[in-house]
Structures are given as structure tokens and as C-alpha cells.
Design a protein that fits this description.
Blueprint (H helix, E strand, L loop, with lengths): L2 E3 L5 E3 L14 E7 L6 E7 L4 E5 L9 E2 L7 E6 L7 E9 L9 E6 L8 E9 L12 E9 L5 E6 L2 E3 L2 E3 L5 E4 L8 E2 L10 E2 L11 E9 L14 E6 L4
């Protein structure tokens, strides 16, 4: 009950009133990231009081954030999925209590794990495109194949068809070889056209932070003496396997 008295001694009494005093501001006491995989992670937030928390990938207002899946108490969490492997992500969190008090933003970042990768030729760099027909690799054609190989696979093979220019042909067998600084063996000579070669045994990675194993394969072609001049072309294939696969 509240009683008011003026200078003349007049009094006035009100009905019972209830006041809520909340001495605590809403604060985020921790914001962590766990369970990081190649395509997901879990955001975990704790607050000093029961709150409703939201998150976003940019530092925006609370109203423009997305509500966390588990929230309302003092521990809050959100499972993220569909992320890209080997990529940095930044997230911001704000929380609000029942009285509408909103905490300052809290920030955390993480990098998803590099994936196993898919077999892919990501580029071909021509080293020598003019050749002398003398049957030597030193005076032949050469290229560097930039290849991503799944990290679980350490055997790489290549195949090439015979080279053709109009009615002229250069046999692949015995005239081509492959090698790599990321392999423990080689060079490997191509012995049959259109058939996969012996295996290069991979033992290192040019760029470990990228998904898959990054390698460079040097492909060399010697042109036999007496070969007719012309613009020759071929088709190729690449095969990677786990050892014993």
C-alpha cells in the first residue's frame, strides 16, 4: 500500500501495487563452438539468467537474428549443417531476458575440417608443346597435371590413347611416362594404349589445408624418329585407389 501526504496533511492511499526488481542484466557468460566436422558444427551459449538467444553470421540487431533451436534457460545451443569443408565461419549471438533486456553481441569463429576430397583434374599446365622427333623425353612434349586425390587413396594411375593427327598416329606404349614429386616411386612408363598404367604411390600433399590430397603429375611424351609433323591429340583417364583397392 502506498500512502501520500501533502503539506496540509491531506493523505491519499492507493491500492496494493506490485513491483518487480531485477538486479541482473542479461549477459552471455560463454560462447563456444564444438563438434566441428567437414560440413557442420554446434554453437553453445551460456547466460547468467534465463534468456532467449539468437544467432547470425553477421553482427546484426537481435530482431534480425535467427532463434537458436535450444534456448529459454541458461544454456543454449544450435546445430549447424550444410557448411563447406575447409572454410572459416563467423557467428554472432545476442540474448534477451523476459523483460526485453538484450545483451551485447558475442562473437566466435571456426574453420570446418578439410574434406576427403573427390578425384579431380583441376588444371593442366603445358611445359613443352613443340617436340623434336628424336625419340627422347628431353626433346618431347610435357605437361603438369594438377590433381586432387581423395586423402584415403594413395595409388594413382593414368591412361592415354594413341596420339592422332589426321591419318598419322604416334603409339602411346613405350613413349609416355608419368612421375610426381608427391610419390615415392616413378617414373612409370605407359605400356599399353588405353589401359591404366602402373601406380604412383602417393606419400605427400602439396596443400594439406585444402580438401583432398593435392598433387602434380608430370606427363612426358617422346616422339619417335621419323614421325610425321602435325598437331596431335589424345584422350586420357585418371584413376585413384586405396592401396590394395
Amino acid at each position: 500500500t502506498i500512502v501520500a501526504t501533502d503539506l496540509a496533511g491531506n493523505t491519499n492511499t492507493t491500492a496494493n501495487e506490485t513491483f518487480i526488481i531485477d538486479p541482473l542484466e542479461t549477459n552471455i557468460t560463454s560462447f563456444t563452438v564444438g563438434g566441428v566436422t567437414t560440413d557442420g558444427a554446434t554453437l553453445t551459449v551460456t547466460t547468467n539468467k534465463n534468456s532467449t538467444c539468437k544467432y547470425a553470421s553477421a553482427n546484426v540487431d537481435y530482431a534480425n537474428m535467427t532463434g537458436m533451436t535450444t534456448t529459454g534457460g541458461k544454456t543454449h545451443s544450435q546445430v549447424l549443417s550444410g557448411l563447406v569443408s575447409g572454410t572459416r565461419y563467423d557467428y554472432y549471438v545476442r540474448c534477451s531476458d523476459a523483460q526485453g533486456n538484450i545483451s551485447p553481441a558475442s562473437h566466435a569463429f571456426f574453420t570446418t575440417l578439410a574434406g576427403n576430397g573427390l578425384l579431380e583434374v583441376t588444371g593442366i599446365s603445358a611445359q613443352k608443346t613443340y617436340a623434336t622427333a628424336d625419340g627422347t623425353y628431353g626433346n618431347g612434349w610435357s605437361w603438369v597435371f594438377h590433381i586432387t586425390v581423395p586423402t584415403t587413396e594413395t595409388s594413382l594411375k593414368m591412361k592415354f590413347d594413341n596420339w592422332v593427327s589426321g591419318g598419322n598416329t604416334i603409339a602411346t606404349a613405350g613413349n609416355m611416362r608419368i612421375s610426381s614429386s608427391q610419390a615415392s616411386n616413378g617414373p612409370i612408363t605407359i605400356t599399353t594404349a588405353g589401359t591404366y598404367s602402373g601406380a604412383l604411390i602417393l606419400n605427400s600433399d602439396l596443400y594439406p589445408s585444402k580438401a583432398g590430397r593435392q598433387i602434380e603429375v608430370l606427363v612426358e611424351m617422346k616422339v619417335p624418329a621419323g614421325t610425321a609433323g602435325g598437331s596431335y591429340s589424345t584422350s586420357y583417364g585418371v584413376l585413384s585407389e586405396a592401396i590394395g583397392g
